């Protein structure tokens, strides 16, 4: 018996039905093992669908490269450059603010405004009134605070 | 004693013990103190380019990496002006490198610029990034260089000049904007770059990157260049301080871990045994990343290990078992294939006896697979007809060592070769056949004054680099070795104390040398008497000599004897038992050592225990519950002969293209045609498989677990990086199925079970188990039961009864020469780019683009004599057959010697020319002894060597990166001086 060299391969023809069956089996197994997650997923999809969000997301994902290009192109225009830089600077600025102290300041401001809103516009304050007012402990506290503030603000 | 070498150094007020002259940065890195560092890499040593590791030493700001510690040194790393200098250096780096990490493919947690800036706590860039006026170099198929991202740290230059020692890369410090250049400033693809990829491995950022990573590693990196650019711009605008930028990019980096797997594996090409992490994304191989802790190679790789993995995903992979049916192979399910194999094996065994079957293991497969293959042959079938491809290459070296020193393996480690004062290589094209090991020798010679003597017919790179290069006549190495040994003894230069204490047979050996006079040697080898004397003088002038040899020694009719002569010389000069000395037969395949170690040999059980030894055989018979024949079986060569004679009727070949790689393949394939039943187990439908009755689809190393043993006797684990393709399966599982179908109950659930069984039966591997081999851990055999391994052999004596080595007397008779009819000698061997017959490497587009086919090297003088030019088509005819190929005219060969790389399975396959002559002691074919005549088919044509082959490049040797030239630039100010200036 002689075995000559051969190179031809007859591939196993797996009927499409069999492949389909196998795939369905795989999917069914996965569904059965993840029943709860799948049901929740369906619920999520239904909610998204009701609000038309599903269509929007679908379209966006399909055109993600275009969308990204548009957004990037737009955001890279010079007019946004200031906004973007400010955005991040603002973010850092917020971090530097001392919220506790600002809170205190804001409380003062609020009660000041409350009183101010009840005062009458027609009454005029003379120079002497001003000097007298310094003796009013409430006004004095405000002025002192403002002076401290001005000193701090001017400090190098 | 050691404590005397230690000194005290004060760092930030704390005292530390240091070794005298220890690198200061190394010392700081062992403490909790943080000093930024980018160009420094432990594997490379200090290159001193990045200036970030500024510290104050005894009142002066210096680079820590450029400073050696001295007793009483006072170091401060945290003074304000020290930090200012560090920051200045970092700012300079960030002028050269844009941080757009989130959309960078290198953002995988290991970017050293990213990490250093983050650790330093640098928040803002003081000066803007300045683009450089150079385009990205995308010319190479393997990696790309982006000058705009390059910080000029010079690690790539250091590794290319002093680790790989290919001397291709340099930094041109003279131009206005310096950059890395290849050769004399040519595109990467046209340079002398050998594609080892080490520059990419050591690059601290994304300046040098594997092309397989580009656009693949990140979630947001695979966009068109324009879009990517706008994303980079936006990233920079929207992420002003580095803190927020890193928060986003670090998150993206950890998301990548979700889909990129990093798996430790062992290279599947040569015997050096490089280990590395392979990065995969689904089935895509993103990159190969060697590690500092890789025992054999460190950060090194060669072109095949780094970039040669395309075969794993080749469309040509076999995915279902095949059975011959008329003129076609038909795909079948596994149970059908296994049933058929077992039925036919049984019929043939029942009809003609167990010895009518033969088994050939693979040097590509794992130790565990070698073990189960020989177990299948011995236990299940009942024959010792089991062998492996070490028969084609390394059996003679093993024989020579068994005769003299008792262990068939390298005496020490690659580190010992690096440490030797003198290295002799004989018949080894080291830089192409064992590239990473070759680089170790080149490095030691270039930087540490190691003497390199090279003996070879052909002036390959090692020959060109050698301190002395000798071209002995083919097959005469035994003569010059013996003559040099005799001269040493005649002069009384032998190592007398060593011989007295450790060596037997001195007198009878000395007498046997009588014939090997200098005159005799000069006449036979062509090496002059003067040179022979100088060789002897050089050999005895050094304290540590290592000799490396390969197929140029073993593939001759006197291969075993010549290997023995090498060992004799080492014994006479006392070059065993110590680090930096010894015998190094460089193993050719990833697991050619392990395949023999684990028993796939006709005369040995695992661990080289004789099958004729009743005690040993009894041990296996008890363990396996089977009777094993007491006589050695047939080796490869004898099996082919037995097929022709009709006494061997079935053959099972695992992972071996025997019909291409055995000698005299016309004769071998004629034998295949006569087989009653032929089983092939392989990844591809190889030339050999074309003759098979059944082909079983196996998997490559990346798709299975197991261990390989490299040339250093080092056992290393490989982990599964990918799932098998289609229905293919690991060899060990297929073999186990066959055994079990025969009615045995092998129940290995994992290769570690196989290793446990082998270790329990084999004293040489007593302490080997998978727990001791986790990740990058390795063991060099012999391994004691307690896990103690043996990096250096013979430390306590030689493995004979009296612990003494044996000198082995030798004869010599010239067995081969060219003659009037066949007037040319064909030398043959490897090229760097391809492996063996090329079944794996030709699947790589990049490698094939660099070297598309084999060629025939012809000397300029022969070309002129025969009137042929580059690209001529020639036909070579030997007594055994003929081969045709394209001529490449080069002075690497001289006179009437031709060189034909063995990496071809078409009409240029060298084994159409080789014949049935073998080494007399081991039956290894004498591949290197081919006499041919040459016929010219076409006088000239297109060169077989493409214009972008590295052999056409122009290397630019220098030591390191020449940082002095940077310091000499007018625009350079030392950051330490600059801050003083500013203050």
From TrEMBL, chain A:
Pfam families: DUF1641 (PF07849)
InterPro entries on file: DUF1641
Protein name (Swiss-Prot/TrEMBL): Uncharacterized conserved protein YjgD, DUF1641 family
The organism of origin for this protein: Virgibacillus subterraneus
TrEMBL record, chain B:
4Fe-4S ferredoxin-type domain location: 141-168, 184-213
Chain segments carrying region Disordered: 940-960
Cross-referenced CDD domains: MopB_Formate-Dh-H
Cofactor(s) the record lists: [2Fe-2S] cluster; [4Fe-4S] cluster; Mo-bis(molybdopterin guanine dinucleotide)
All copies of domain 2Fe-2S ferredoxin-type, residue ranges: 5-81
Keyword annotations of the record: 2Fe-2S, 4Fe-4S, Iron, Iron-sulfur, Metal-binding, Molybdenum, Oxidoreductase, Repeat
Database matches in Pfam families: Fer2_4 (PF13510), Fer4_7 (PF12838), Molybdop_Fe4S4 (PF04879), Molybdopterin (PF00384), Molydop_binding (PF01568), NADH-G_4Fe-4S_3 (PF10588)
Domain 4Fe-4S His(Cys)3-ligated-type: 81-121
Matching Gene3D superfamilies: 2.40.40.20, 3.10.20.740, 3.30.70.20, 3.40.50.740, ADC-like domains, Dimethylsulfoxide Reductase, domain 2
Residues covered by the 4Fe-4S Mo/W bis-MGD-type domain: 260-316
SUPFAM superfamilies, per database record: 2Fe-2S ferredoxin-like (SSF54292), 4Fe-4S ferredoxins (SSF54862), ADC-like (SSF50692), Formate dehydrogenase/DMSO reductase, domains 1-3 (SSF53706)
Similarity section: In the C-terminal section; belongs to the prokaryotic molybdopterin-containing oxidoreductase family.
Protein name: Formate dehydrogenase major subunit
């Amino acid at each position: 018996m002689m075995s000559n060299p051969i190179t031809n391969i007859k591939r196993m023809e797996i009927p499409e039905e069999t492949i389909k069956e196998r795939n369905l089996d795989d999917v069914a197994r996965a569904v059965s093992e993840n029943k709860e997650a799948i049901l929740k997923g369906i619920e999520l999809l239904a909610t998204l669908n009701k609000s038309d969000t599903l269509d929007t997301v679908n379209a966006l994902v399909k055109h993600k490269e275009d969308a990204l290009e548009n957004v990037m192109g737009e955001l890279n225009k010079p007019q946004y450059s200031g906004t973007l830089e400010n955005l991040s600077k603002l973010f850092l600025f917020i971090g530097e603010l001392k919220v506790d102290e600002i809170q205190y300041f804001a409380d003062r401001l609020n009660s000041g405004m409350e009183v101010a809103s009840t005062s009458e516009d027609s009454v005029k304050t003379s120079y002497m009134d001003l000097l007298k007012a310094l003796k009013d402990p409430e006004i004095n506290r405000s002025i002192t605070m403002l002076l401290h503030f001005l000193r701090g603000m001017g400090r190098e | 004693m050691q404590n005397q070498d230690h000194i005290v150094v004060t760092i930030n007020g704390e005292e530390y013990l240091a070794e005298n002259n220890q690198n200061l940065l190394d010392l700081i890195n062992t403490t909790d103190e943080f000093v930024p560092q980018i160009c420094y890499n432990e594997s490379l040593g200090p290159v001193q380019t990045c200036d970030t590791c500024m510290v104050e030493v005894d009142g002066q700001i210096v680079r820590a990496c450029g400073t050696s510690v001295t007793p009483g040194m006072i170091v401060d790393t945290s003074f304000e002006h020290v930090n200012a200098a560090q920051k200045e250096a970092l700012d300079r780096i960030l002028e050269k490198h844009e941080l757009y990490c989130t959309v960078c493919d290198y953002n995988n947690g290991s970017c050293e610029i990213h990490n250093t800036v983050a650790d330093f706590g640098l928040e803002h860039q003081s000066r803007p990034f300045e683009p450089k006026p150079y385009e990205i170099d995308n010319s190479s198929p393997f990696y790309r260089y982006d000058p705009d991202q390059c910080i000029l740290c010079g690690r790539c230059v250091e590794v290319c000049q002093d680790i790989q020692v290919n001397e291709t890369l340099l930094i041109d410090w003279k131009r206005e904007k310096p950059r890395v250049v290849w050769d004399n400033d040519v595109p990467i693809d046209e340079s002398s770059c050998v594609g080892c990829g080490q520059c990419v491995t050591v690059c601290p950022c994304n300046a040098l990157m594997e092309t397989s990573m580009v656009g693949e590693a990140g979630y947001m990196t695979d966009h068109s260049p324009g879009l990517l650019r706008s994303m980079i711009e936006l990233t920079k605008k929207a992420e002003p301080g580095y803190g927020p930028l890193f928060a986003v990019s670090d998150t993206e980096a950890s998301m990548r871990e979700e889909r990129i797997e990093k798996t430790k594996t062992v290279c599947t090409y040569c015997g050096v045994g490089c280990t590395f992490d392979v990065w995969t994304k689904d089935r895509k191989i993103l990159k190969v990343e060697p590690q500092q802790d890789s025992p054999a190679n460190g950060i090194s790789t060669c072109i095949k290990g780094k970039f040669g993995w395309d075969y794993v995903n080749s469309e040509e992979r076999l995915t279902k078992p095949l059975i011959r049916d008329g003129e076609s192979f038909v795909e079948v399910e596994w149970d059908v294939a296994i049933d058929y194999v077992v039925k036919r094996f049984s019929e043939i065994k029942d009809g003609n006896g167990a010895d009518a079957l033969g088994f050939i293991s693979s040097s590509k497969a794992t130790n565990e697979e070698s073990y189960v293959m020989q177990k299948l042959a011995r236990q299940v079938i009942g024959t010792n007809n089991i062998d492996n491809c070490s028969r084609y290459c390394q059996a003679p070296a093993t024989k020579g060592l068994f005769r003299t020193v008792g262990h068939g393996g390298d005496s020490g480690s690659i580190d010992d070769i690096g440490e030797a004062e003198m290295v002799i290589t004989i018949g080894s094209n080291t830089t192409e056949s064992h590239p990473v090991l070759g680089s170790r020798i080149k490095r030691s010679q270039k930087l540490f004054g190691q003497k390199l003597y090279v003996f070879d017919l052909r002036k390959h790179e090692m020959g060109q680099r050698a301190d002395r290069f000798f071209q002995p006549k083919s097959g005469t190495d035994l003569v010059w070795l013996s003559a040099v040994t005799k001269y040493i003894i005649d002069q009384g230069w032998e190592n007398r104390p060593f011989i007295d204490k450790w060596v037997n047979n001195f007198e009878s050996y000395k007498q046997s040398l009588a014939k090997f006079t200098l005159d005799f040697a000069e006449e036979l080898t062509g090496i002059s008497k003067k040179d022979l004397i100088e060789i002897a003088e050089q050999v005895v002038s050094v304290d540590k000599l290592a000799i490396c040899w390969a197929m140029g020694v073993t593939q001759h009719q006197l291969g075993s004897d010549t290997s023995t002569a090498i060992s004799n010389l080492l014994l006479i000069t006392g070059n065993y038992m110590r680090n930096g000395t010894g015998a190094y037969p460089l193993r050719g395949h990833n697991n050619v050592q392990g395949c023999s170690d684990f028993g796939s040999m006709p005369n040995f059980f695992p661990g080289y225990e004789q099958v004729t030894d009743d005690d040993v055989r009894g041990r296996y018979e008890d363990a396996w519950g089977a009777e094993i024949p007491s006589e050695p079986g047939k080796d490869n060569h004898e099996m082919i002969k037995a097929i022709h004679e009709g006494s061997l009727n079935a053959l099972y070949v695992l992972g071996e293209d025997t019909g291409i790689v055995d000698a005299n393949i016309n004769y071998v394939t004629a034998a295949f045609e006569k087989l009653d039943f032929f089983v092939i187990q392989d990844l591809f439908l190889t030339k050999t498989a074309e003759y098979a009755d059944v082909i079983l689809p196996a998997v490559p190393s990346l798709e299975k677990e197991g261990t390989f043993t490299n040339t250093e006797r080092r056992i290393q684990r490989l982990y599964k990086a990918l799932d098998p393709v289609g229905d293919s399966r690991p060899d060990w599982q297929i073999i186990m199925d066959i055994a079990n179908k025969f009615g045995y109950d092998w129940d290995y659930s994992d290769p570690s079970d196989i290793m446990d069984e082998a270790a329990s039966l084999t004293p040489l591997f007593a302490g080997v188990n998978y727990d001791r081999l986790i990740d990058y851990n390795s063991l060099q055999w012999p391994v004691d039961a307690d896990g103690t391994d043996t990096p250096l052999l013979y430390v306590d004596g030689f493995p004979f009864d009296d612990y003494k080595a044996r000198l082995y007397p030798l004869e010599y008779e010239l067995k081969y020469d060219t003659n009037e009819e066949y007037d040319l000698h064909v030398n043959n061997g490897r090229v760097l780019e391809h492996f063996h017959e090329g079944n794996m490497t030709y699947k790589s587009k990049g490698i094939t683009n660099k070297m598309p086919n084999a060629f025939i090297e012809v000397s300029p003088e022969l070309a002129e004599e025969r009137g042929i030019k580059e690209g001529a088509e020639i036909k070579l005819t030997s007594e055994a057959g003929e081969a045709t190929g394209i001529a490449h005219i080069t002075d690497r060969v001289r006179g009437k010697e031709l060189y034909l790389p063995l990496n071809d399975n078409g009409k240029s396959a060298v084994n159409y020319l080789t014949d049935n002559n073998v080494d007399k002691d081991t039956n290894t074919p004498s591949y290197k002894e081919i006499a041919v005549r040459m016929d010219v088919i076409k006088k000239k044509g297109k060169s077989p060597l493409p214009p972008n082959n590295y052999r056409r490049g122009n290397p630019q040797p220098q030591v390191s990166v020449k940082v002095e030239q940077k310091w000499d630039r007018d625009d350079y100010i030392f950051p330490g001086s600059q801050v003083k200036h500013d203050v």
